């Protein structure tokens, strides 16, 4: 495909996302079925442009004077991909390209970023979130939000249950992986140029062998804060896709037990092939259709890990379409769920055991407010130093230890952001139950 046809395809896909409320993956899949002639490079190009148009939606729409799929895609070529006017005009002359630029579009493409634009425009996020983000970031709101619009790397964790870190690391390096500056057993594959294909993990032998797992560095640091020891009994209460379940199992060195529970049985079932590939034999699944298997754990866990459902603001780099689907009413609903989940999960902690609460959100209402409210309701628990817990796990490098200390908030919890940590947004707090 020529670039003009790719641009037209991106407009069609973005129209499905914006006006038909399809997730990007679903819209791309539907377009791919219609465009059998499109190769892998074409699909990567189109997907990359759609995602960057969504990442920079408000600022591009502000410059272009319109929020249509056409304006967003063409504007993203200039303002996100740094194409000049001649490149854009040349592409629009291709066969199957969209119509030529209008005078208004040319003006929008020539505009420089406006430093006086409202924060939600400069930072590319829904306007209703401004007071919530100002509470957390203060004067740094715009620069913090802009970092959420950058492309994210692929973060990997060496699976020490199955591979020697040095040997696995060499295998990852052959695929372009680089050692993490924050994690002893972490690697990352830098985000490619916007129009290029991302590395396919299936092409990395170390991945198919179970030597490495995909897990954001922020998630790995949160798992480190669990600071579990060989022989501990652990409950991953909101296991989801199982990334933290597998990390916890590796930290136990194959001894002790990890119980994985999720209210969504389908997500839990999807963990089974990951478990087989990882070689983690000390994990048991607690299916929601068999509540007795979960209830039997009441008051017996050394650690309960709660990766609570949240608004997902910390994942915007990877899922930019979700920030435009996020409604104000969803925050209140998530808060209710978080309160209920924390109270229920705490019942499984044994005397002297610990409860780790984590979210992939920046919002205080989902983070420190939930912890404070839980401690008010549950006098048997006290908050610990989450940074120290992560450091004592031995999973962090010296730079990683310095990072969690710098990003600690009053009370002892830690909040990581793309700008300050180079990770997805994560919050984690550790609480201990009285003996």
In short:
The protein is α/β, with parallel strands linked by helices. The protein has helices at 3-19, 24-34, 40-55, 57-64, 69-79, 85-91, 103-110, 119-122, 130-137, 141-147, 165-173, 205-208, 217-224, 243-251, 265-269, 271-278, 291-295, 320-325, 328-346, 368-377, 386-392, 398-406, 418-421, and strands at 154-158, 178-179, 186-189, 212-214, 233-236, 257-261, 283-286, 301-307, 349-359, 381-383, 414-416, 426-433.
List the helices and strands and how they pair.
Blueprint: H1 3-19, H2 24-34, H3 40-55, H4 57-64, H5 69-79, H6 85-91, H7 103-110, H8 119-122, H9 130-137, H10 141-147, E1 154-158, H11 165-173, E2 178-179, E3 186-189, H12 205-208, E4 212-214, H13 217-224, E5 233-236, H14 243-251, E6 257-261, H15 265-269, H16 271-278, E7 283-286, H17 291-295, E8 301-307, H18 320-325, H19 328-346, E9 349-359, H20 368-377, E10 381-383, H21 386-392, H22 398-406, E11 414-416, H23 418-421, E12 426-433
Parallel strand pairs: 5-6, 5-8, 6-7, 8-9
Antiparallel strand pairs: 1-3, 1-4, 2-3, 9-12, 10-12, 11-12
How would you characterize the overall build of this protein?
The protein has helices at 3-19, 24-34, 40-55, 57-64, 69-79, 85-91, 103-110, 119-122, 130-137, 141-147, 165-173, 205-208, 217-224, 243-251, 265-269, 271-278, 291-295, 320-325, 328-346, 368-377, 386-392, 398-406, 418-421, and strands at residues 154-158, 178-179, 186-189, 212-214, 233-236, 257-261, 283-286, 301-307, 349-359, 381-383, 414-416, 426-433. With 435 residues, it is an alpha/beta fold. The chain folds into three domains: 3-111, N-utilizing Substance Protein B Homolog, Chain A (Orthogonal Bundle), CATH 1.10.940; 154-214, Sun protein, domain 3 (Alpha-Beta Plaits); 221-433, Rossmann fold (3-Layer(aba) Sandwich), CATH 3.40.50. The longest helix has 19 residues, at 328-346. The chain is globular, with a radius of gyration of 23 Å.
